[in-house]
TrEMBL record:
Gene3D superfamilies reported in the protein's UniProt record: Glutaredoxin (3.40.30.10), NADH-quinone oxidoreductase subunit E (1.10.10.1590)
SUPFAM superfamilies for this protein: Thioredoxin-like
Record key words, sorted: 2Fe-2S, Iron, Iron-sulfur, Metal-binding
UniProt-recorded name of the protein: Formate dehydrogenase subunit gamma
Co-factor note (free text): Binds 1 [2Fe-2S] cluster.
A family per Pfam: 2Fe-2S_thioredx
Binding residues annotated for [2Fe-2S] cluster, in chain numbering: 84, 89, 125, 129
Family under the similarity heading: Belongs to the complex I 24 kDa subunit family.
Cofactor requirements of the protein: [2Fe-2S] cluster
Length: 159
């Protein structure tokens, strides 16, 4: 779906998502995932609609969006690179990889490169502790990542 929809299109799509998923037990997270899958982020105007549809306060919905690192309130770049920040990855050089990625992209965590190609996000465990340090690029996990491997991943996405 086009990420540059006008507000009425956003409202219509969000209303459909809420209607389709509000019957689930604990529907907030599935609704937020569906909204983000549709728009690439959680548009600000979706928060009050979700709150109303689930009989929650806007603060509750906003709190969930800002608490979980997987949700974003602004569009991501064309590619999303998540670097594991958990202890096993830190012990195996994850901090150096994070610093290298920041330098190469010219950004910090939670930011998108100036050309819009890559959003850099921290993640607190990818479940690859035995192959640390680990990263996830566009949903594909990569273990035993070193500087060369990181450079290769960035080159693959044109960064």
């Amino acid at each position: 779906m086009d990420r540059h929809l006008v507000s009425s299109d956003i409202a219509t799509s969000v209303a459909e998502i809420i209607s389709d998923l509000k019957h689930l037990e604990g529907p907030l997270l599935p609704i937020l995932h569906a909204v983000q899958d549709t728009f690439g982020h959680i548009p600000n105007e979706a928060v009050p609609m979700i709150a109303l549809g689930l009989n929650l306060s806007r603060a509750e919905v906003h709190g969930v969006v800002t608490f979980y690192h997987d949700y974003r309130s602004h569009p991501a770049g064309r590619h999303v690179l998540k670097l594991c920040r958990a202890e096993a990855c830190q012990a195996m050089g994850g901090d150096r990889l994070g610093d290298r990625a920041k330098r190469r992209l010219g950004i910090d965590f939670h930011q998108t490169s100036a050309d819009g190609s890559v959003t850099l996000e921290p993640v607190f465990c990818l479940g690859l502790c035995s192959t640390a340090p680990a990263a996830m690029l566009d949903g594909a996990v990569h273990g035993r990542l070193d500087a060369h491997g990181l450079d290769t991943l960035l080159a693959e996405v044109g960064a």
